[in-house]
Write a structure and sequence with these properties.
Elements (H helix, E strand, L loop, with lengths): L1 E2 L34 E5 L29 E5 L9 E10 L11 E4 L15 E5 L21 E6 L1
Parallel strand pairs: 2-6
Antiparallel strand pairs: 1-2, 3-7, 4-5, 4-6, 4-7
């Protein structure tokens, strides 16, 4: 998975799936100081993942494809789909840190999150943090949300 560096104020805001076999067509050697993409690293010691600590491991990318169901939705704050929808996976809602210079999309990371093998280094780049509800300070209601609780998420298809 790739994204913009957490300290940058410009560039793309979404996380992207990167190929393991890039093909370069036209290029200019050397760094041109334009836009950039960095690897994405987990920044969490949250025990909600069943595979243990993800801290400082690189995050692989996953694509959800279901041949027979053409609609897909990610729903934050729950691990269940509405009636008539099929749950493909559920997990923890993650994004960049609220205080970093660079905003990013919210992504649903599977409760059985995987890591890129051999990637346990603190190299930073694009970063993923578990999202907590922050109610009482803005318009997120403290009922039903609980301040400081980590939010679940679910990916559903129909």
């Amino acid at each position: 998975m790739g994204g913009e560096h957490y300290t940058h104020t410009g560039g793309g805001t979404n996380y992207v799936c990167l190929t393991n076999s890039p093909i370069y067509d036209k290029y200019e050697s050397g760094w041109q100081s334009g836009a950039a993409v960095y690897g994405t690293e987990y920044e969490t010691t949250f025990a909600g993942f069943t595979r243990g600590s993800l801290q400082n491991h690189d995050a692989p990318c996953a694509v959800c494809y279901v041949r027979s169901r053409g609609s897909q939705v990610m729903i934050p704050g729950t691990n269940k789909c509405s009636s008539g929808w099929t749950r493909e996976y559920y997990g923890c809602l993650m994004t960049s840190h609220y205080n970093h210079a660079h905003p990013s999309d919210f992504v649903c990371v599977d409760v059985d999150a995987e890591v890129v093998p051999g990637s346990h280094r603190d190299t930073d780049g694009a970063l993923l943090y578990v999202v907590e509800g922050n109610c009482g300070y803005a318009t997120l209601p403290c009922k039903p949300y609980i301040h400081g609780y980590e939010l679940t998420c679910v990916v559903c298809t129909k």
